[in-house]
């Protein structure tokens, strides 16, 4: 029973720290955020912060790693055994549903005070998966130009969606993106 209470307290403290970090990153770059500032904002003692993380960068890295783990799990769920995408719509729906669940975090990570390394890591992961999907079906030199186009377009549309004052639902975004992907790729054949 004591272990469950401790786990709950740990989760609660980490959630508070995450909420505070998101608030601060919406206003300033990560390099300008101190442990003291974050601890004061969420009303915990700095020692408590150091029980969980080494520094602000360690915290950000662990948060990003958790998000990438979820992102990889979602990608794995949407690939059939042969490595083909099950459905562009269902894949996009899962993506936007995942992002909706982490909207505030995704917004600051991709935003103006965000982490460029995170964005580059996201692009590299998406490109790697795209290359795997298209390596056998579309092995033409023209596809080398499609990867950066699709990756940048996906990140751009995600950023626009995250920053829109009245964003479309995940279902509407899935329909829009899958239509764009299907029509764009159809023109390459």
Secondary structure elements and pairings:
Elements: H1 2-25, H2 35-42, H3 46-52, H4 56-77, H5 88-101, H6 103-110, H7 116-134, H8 143-163, H9 170-186
Helix pairs in contact: 1-2, 4-5, 5-9, 7-8
Write up this protein.
This protein has 189 residues and is mainly α. It folds into two domains: 1-53, Orthogonal Bundle (Arc Repressor Mutant, subunit A); 57-186. It has helices at 2-25, 35-42, 46-52, 56-77, 88-101, 103-110, 116-134, 143-163, 170-186. The termini are far apart.
Quick structural summary:
74% of the residues lie in helices and 0% in strands. By secondary structure, the protein is mainly α.
Average predicted confidence as pLDDT: 84
Q: What string gives the helices and strands in order?
A: HHHHHHHHH
Gyration radius over CA:
19 Å
- Helix count? 9
Q: Would you count the extended β strands for me?
A: 0
Low-confidence stretches: none
Share of residues in helices: over 70%
Number of domains: 2
Strand content: under 5%
Structural class based on helices, strands and sheet pairing: mainly alpha
User: Biggest sheet, in brief?
Assistant: none
- Tertiary shape: elongated
First and last CA, distance: 61 Å
């Amino acid at each position: 029973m004591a272990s469950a209470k401790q786990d709950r307290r740990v989760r609660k403290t980490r959630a508070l720290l995450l909420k505070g970090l998101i608030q601060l990153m919406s206003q300033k770059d990560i390099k300008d955020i101190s442990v003291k500032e974050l601890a004061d904002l969420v009303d915990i003692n700095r020692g408590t912060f150091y029980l969980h993380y080494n520094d602000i960068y360690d915290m950000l890295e662990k948060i990003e790693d958790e998000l990438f783990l979820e992102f990889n799990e979602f990608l794995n769920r949407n690939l059939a055994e042969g490595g083909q995408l099950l459905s562009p719509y269902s894949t996009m729906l899962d993506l936007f549903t995942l992002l909706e669940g982490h909207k505030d975090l995704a917004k600051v990570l991709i935003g103006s005070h965000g982490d460029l390394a995170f964005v580059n890591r996201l692009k590299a992961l998406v490109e790697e998966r795209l290359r795997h999907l298209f390596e056998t079906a579309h092995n033409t030199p023209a596809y080398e130009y499609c990867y950066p186009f699709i990756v940048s377009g996906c990140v751009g549309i995600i950023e626009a969606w995250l920053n829109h004052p009245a964003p479309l639902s995940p279902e509407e975004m899935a329909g829009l993106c899958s239509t764009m992907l299907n029509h764009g790729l159809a023109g390459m054949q």
